[in-house]
Specification:
Elements: E1 2-5, E2 8-16, H1 23-33, E3 42-46, E4 60-73, E5 76-100, E6 109-125, H2 134-148, E7 153-159, H3 163-172, E8 176-179, E9 182-187, E10 199-204, H4 206-217, H5 227-232, E11 236-244, H6 252-257, E12 263-270, E13 276-280, H7 284-299, E14 317-326, H8 330-347, E15 352-357, H9 363-366, E16 375-383
Parallel strand pairs: 6-7, 14-15
Antiparallel strand pairs: 1-2, 2-4, 3-13, 4-5, 5-6, 7-16, 8-16, 9-15, 9-16, 10-11, 11-12, 12-14
Length: 412
């Protein structure tokens, strides 16, 4: 991309991110983009010195930067600055379900249909270099890499209210609106949340967790085929199973063959060691009110007063994922698991816990969250090539949403 200006030509080059030379300039662009509209509250993300941290744990990933170079003549080139960046990753996920029999006469069983899916995140363009087509160039170059590595679909997630982002992808990059999950966020109080004494919470081994997820949730949309890698990752704090207090746990095989009437499962991912968040632009009055709630909650914990954590300073996050279960009391068991996860986050000095659920999922109403901190996400999807076989699912873009989705914590 070239532009004439002054005595030379300004060139925008899209290239791979180089951690040895680019980190400081990338952080400057990140900082310039984290500004709220008209001086309102904004959310700043500190990537803790690792711009690739949000894709680093995926099976395949890439980060690109857009760099402005001024050609000043006389065969001299002067690098001005990095003005944009984009991250992408690729994994294999469930996109649908087919029904088959192992042998003639066996009952028909649902089986997952997998596809190679790419994900775009962290697209940033400096406020001083927007409306120049740089964002589109970054997306197009990333999609080339996706296609070269066999991805069939690409998707992005953005705040439903982020009109510039939605417009860029749906009107200029060929994406279509696909799913509207809800991001549910809850502050970590100074007091603990209650967990029913009728429920027993078991921490599963990665092997037991993997077996339950594969047997019970592999047909869930967006389920990652490499779930074993997710559960064995050092950022995974554990997979927890809620069962009746008197249930005798002897392993996942027995559990799957004869499960209790009611149960729920949930895993916890430690985003705190990947990035920190901070709310900026708050008035002294808001900061003072938040501090007062924490003091009251700390001094009078028995009152169980809602308190706001130190969100106006850098704070950590725990991501709750892999939520599921069965039985008429399932959502209540899930709520107990949430209380357990909240208390774990309190011990780890996290500021908030968050999860993301389908708009159709009953957990949307059952999981405690603060509406002022929560929001509706928008997932947009694009088919990268028309030469892929539709197989037994057809075009995934045209499928109806299921009751739930499996949110991969590596990309939250």
């Amino acid at each position: 991309m070239e532009q004439s200006g002054g005595n030379g030509v300004r060139v925008v080059v899209i290239r791979e991110y180089d951690p040895k030379t680019d980190i400081e300039r990338v952080e400057q662009v990140e900082s310039s983009c984290e500004v709220g509209p008209n001086g309102e509250l904004s959310l700043y993300t500190d990537l803790l010195g690792d711009p690739i941290c949000r894709v680093r744990n995926s099976p395949a990933y890439l980060m690109l930067v857009a760099e402005v170079i001024d050609d000043v003549g006389d065969n001299e080139r002067e690098t001005k600055e990095i003005v944009g960046m984009i991250r992408g990753c690729i994994k294999t996920v469930t996109c649908g379900t087919k029904f088959s029999r192992a042998k003639t006469g066996d009952p028909v069983k649902p089986m997952p249909v997998f596809t190679k899916l790419a994900y775009i995140l962290g697209l940033r363009v400096s406020p001083f270099h927007r409306r120049m087509g740089i964002g589109i160039k970054l997306v197009q170059r990333m999609e080339e890499w996706f296609g070269d590595n066999g991805a069939e679909y690409s998707y992005i997630a953005t705040d439903d209210a982020n009109e510039p982002s939605v417009s860029l992808f749906t009107e200029k990059c060929g994406y279509s609106k696909f799913r509207n999950p809800s991001v549910l966020v809850h502050p970590v109080f100074a007091h603990r949340l209650p967990v029913s004494n009728r429920v027993r919470i078991i921490k599963l081994s990665p092997a037991d967790g993997e077996l339950i997820y594969r047997r019970r949730f592999s047909t869930t949309e967006f389920f990652p085929r490499d779930i074993d890698s997710v559960l064995k990752n050092q950022l995974n704090l554990g997979t927890f199973l809620a069962v009746p207090r008197k249930y005798n746990w002897v392993g996942s095989d027995k559990f799957l063959s004869d499960p209790p009437e009611n149960w729920a499962i949930m895993s916890v991912w430690n985003c705190k060691d990947v990035f920190k968040l901070e709310v900026k632009g708050a008035s002294k009055l808001r900061k003072g009110f938040a501090k007062t709630t924490r003091i009251l909650d700390r001094v009078f914990p028995f009152l169980r007063l809602p308190s706001l954590p130190k969100i106006f300073s850098p704070f950590g996050l725990h991501m709750l994922y892999g939520l599921g279960g069965s039985g008429p009391m399932y959502t209540k068991y899930a709520k107990d698991l949430f209380g357990f996860a909240h208390n774990l986050a309190k011990e780890c000095k996290c500021g908030v816990v968050a999860t993301e659920v389908s708009s159709e999922d009953p957990l949307k109403l059952a999981i405690p969250h603060w509406k002022v901190l929560s929001f509706t996400d928008l997932w947009c999807i694009k088919r990268l090539g028309e030469d892929y076989s539709d197989g037994s699912v057809g075009d995934w873009r045209k499928s109806q949403p299921g009751l739930s989705i499996f949110v991969d914590p590596r990309e939250f």
